[in-house]
């Protein structure tokens, strides 16, 4: 028995080494952890249970028979994060560049299937050059098996992808199908094809960093939702984010009993909106003054900064916040901000996370660039996402709610449950200046003092609509509340909506304008 046991121990020791000590040392020298170190750090200490450690590939072409490595370049299994079960895989770049073989794919599919059957989140730590080139079509089919499962699991269990090295091909398409993507600065890259292929095909010279580094995807493409300075910080952020989510679409996110809220924020919130309604302010200050202390986790913070989205807690409960940002392009809605907002709304709705909308929006961005790139279709995504959402939904209009954007930003008429406005709210088809120019055009043209007439008419329109009271008279807002009353109002309002039950008409699935 001793002999047999020591055989197992030896096999386990071999598996610990992945592609060998020299390659692990190289990984460390680049500031990266090994695949095993990562998955152990991700999980609660001592909770990780590995499956598939002894799996080996069966391929023989191009000398592959000499490259067998126990585990075949991916560590798979389950464990807990803050006591809740999660499934995970961690690709090992030291084994054939973490490339995906037939068996490597089967191991990932196994954890995806287990996560689905058991209703638990799945987290992929990606560090892979994509499909294993030597295996040809079987590795492509392996990726297709993963994509299929990612898609079937979408909206059923949370799926998080962490990019921790150079990832290409299928190693970026699987993450793109999941809910949230994390990237590590300076050591992780995502591209469909790397710089050398780009050079051959388009003659463009571009570095890995510029093409698909964390900064490029955080600011330009919006492909990544979160970035971190190194592997350790990144995994800590993943562990934190998961606390805002339920295990699956049938459950609620965990509730936290200890709630901290600094009372001074009730004073601070009264002075955030500037007297001049054309001046900017940072909506994140309003968010901070409403939610439990230090609980805001902004998603895609550097992309489409004219809208702010993220998770927060209010009285210990998870909340999805969607807020126009007056300090970036005056908070206008454009293609990118509509897409960003819509995707976040749909995640929250899939996983029973109530929505809080803070509205200060001058409208949709006009111009040929936006029109030709399809602002109509993309703006409709946000409208569709809100209209479709059945979770509790509350809107607070802090200032401007102009034009179509009033409708889009979770208006009562597209199904919001409770709509509030601050006394500073302005709810109109457009700003007073533009409105006066259009509806009093003839009168202004006929006047001797055109400028004076315009100003007079602008004031008349502002008097009528630059306030929340016309909307309150008609019930489009349910109450006008003071900024300092907002937190307590929201706590009571979300509590009243806790048992909300609403179902969509029976259908296969809707047809969101993609
Ligand atoms: C087999 C691979 C591999 C792959 C890397 N390696 N990618 N082996 N299949 N896809 C091996 C290398 O041969 C090398 O082995 C080791 O991993 C490390 O790779 P390096 O190139 O030395 O590392 P680095 O310079 O850091 O570059 C990493 C990289 C690059 C950017 C990922 O390796 C690369 O461009 N790989 C190919 C990417 C790709 O085109 N994949 C196919 C995508 S198609 P040795 O033994 O020399 O150390 C795909 C289809 C899915 O995935 C469908 C999508 C819809």
TrEMBL record:
Highest taxon listed in the record's lineage: Bacteria
UniProt keyword annotation of Repeat present: no
Domain CoA carboxyltransferase C-terminal: 258-499
Residues of the CoA carboxyltransferase N-terminal domain: 1-257
Entry GO terms, CC: acetyl-CoA carboxylase complex
One GO MF term attached to the UniProt entry: acetyl-CoA carboxylase activity
Record GO biological process: carbon fixation
Keywords: Ligase
Similarity comment text for this entry: Belongs to the AccD/PCCB family.
Identification of the protein by name: Propionyl-CoA carboxylase beta chain
The organism of origin for this protein: Fluviicola taffensis (strain DSM 16823 / NCIMB 13979 / RW262)
């Amino acid at each position: 028995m001793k002999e047999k046991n020591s055989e197992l121990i030896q096999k386990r020791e071999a598996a610990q080494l992945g592609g060998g000590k020299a390659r692990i040392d190289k990984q460390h020298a680049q500031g990266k952890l090994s695949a095993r170190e990562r998955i152990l750090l991700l999980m609660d200490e001592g909770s990780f249970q590995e499956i598939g450690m002894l799996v080996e590939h069966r391929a023989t072409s191009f000398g592959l028979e000499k490259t067998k490595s126990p585990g075949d370049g991916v560590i798979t299994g389950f464990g807990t994060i803050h006591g809740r079960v999660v499934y995970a895989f961690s690709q090992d770049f030291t084994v054939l560049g973490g490339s995906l073989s037939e068996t490597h794919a089967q191991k990932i599919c196994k954890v995806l299937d287990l996560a689905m059957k058991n209703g638990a989140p799945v987290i992929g730590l990606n560090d892979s050059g994509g499909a294993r080139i030597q295996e040809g079509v079987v590795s492509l089919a392996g990726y297709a098996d993963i994509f299929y499962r990612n898609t079937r699991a979408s909206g059923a269990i949370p799926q998080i992808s962490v990019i921790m090295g150079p990832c290409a091909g299928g190693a970026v398409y699987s993450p793109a199908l999941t809910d949230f993507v994390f990237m590590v600065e300076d050591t992780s890259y995502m591209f469909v094809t790397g710089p050398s292929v780009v050079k051959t095909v388009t003659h463009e010279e571009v570095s890995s960093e510029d093409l698909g580094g964390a900064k490029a995807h955080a600011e330009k493409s919006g492909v990544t939702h979160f970035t971190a300075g190194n592997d350790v910080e990144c995994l800590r952020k993943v562990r934190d984010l998961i606390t805002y989510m339920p295990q699956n679409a049938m459950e609620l996110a965990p509730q936290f009993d200890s709630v901290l809220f600094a009372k001074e924020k009730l004073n601070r919130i009264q002075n955030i909106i500037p007297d001049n309604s054309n001046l900017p302010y940072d909506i994140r200050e309003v968010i901070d003054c409403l939610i439990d202390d230090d609980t805001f986790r902004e998603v895609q913070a550097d992309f489409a900064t004219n809208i702010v989205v993220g998770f927060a807690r209010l009285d210990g409960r998870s909340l999805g916040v969607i807020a126009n940002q007056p300090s970036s392009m005056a908070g206008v809605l454009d293609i990118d901000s509509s897409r960003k907002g819509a995707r976040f709304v749909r995640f929250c709705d899939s996983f029973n996370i109530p929505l809080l909308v803070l509205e200060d929006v001058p409208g949709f961005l006009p111009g040929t660039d936006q029109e030709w790139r399809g602002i109509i279709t993309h703006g409709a995504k946000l409208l569709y996402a809100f209209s479709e959402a059945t979770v509790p939904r509350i809107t607070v209009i802090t200032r401007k709610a102009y034009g179509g954007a009033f409708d889009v930003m979770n208006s009562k008429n597209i199904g919001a449950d409770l709509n509030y406005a601050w006394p500073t709210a302005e709810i109109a088809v457009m700003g007073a200046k533009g409105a006066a120019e259009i509806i009093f055009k003839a009168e202004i043209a006929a006047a001797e003092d055109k400028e004076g007439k315009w100003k007079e008419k602008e004031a008349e329109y502002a008097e009528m609509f630059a306030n929340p009271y016309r909307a309150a008279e008609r019930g489009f807002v349910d109450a006008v509340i003071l900024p300092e009353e907002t937190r307590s109002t929201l706590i009571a309002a979300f509590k009243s909506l806790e048992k909300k039950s609403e179902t969509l008409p029976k259908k296969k699935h809707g047809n969101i304008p993609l």
